[in-house]
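Issue: ligand-bound run for fe (ii) ion - logging full I/O for the record.

Environment: standard queue, default settings, no custom constraints.

Inputs:
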Amino acid sequence: MENKAPLAWSEKYRVGHQRIDDNRKLIFEIRGLANKATSDGRSSEMVQQILSNLMDFSQRHFPDEEEFMQSIGFPDLKNHRESHLLLLQKTEDFIEQLRLGYSVTIHDVLGFLEEWIYSHLLDEDMKIMEFSELKTR
Ligand SMILES: [Fe+2]
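Outputs:
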């Protein structure tokens, strides 16, 4: 898979809320963990842990970000919330596959994280920032 997502967090990815941005950076840490697991040859034992980190992250961070969007009157909240639900659902699906004994590889998880960063964090989340900047201008 082509790697379209940048490797590290940059301040230009901020949406302009300290706690939310601190949390959004964690996605890069989770991906770092997945990359490290690959290079350490510990990928199969780490998949479960990485998915569980991702689940904790989403359950904490999504409601927080949604509350922020609501507080600034972000007009596309409904679609953004749906996109969070899809990410959560996909994470749950991976966890369920593992529970049922199907294989989920670190590459599946890395591909998912790449897509998450590229399509959500750097695209959909940035619309929050664009809107809040317009509003305060
Ligand atoms: Fe988001």
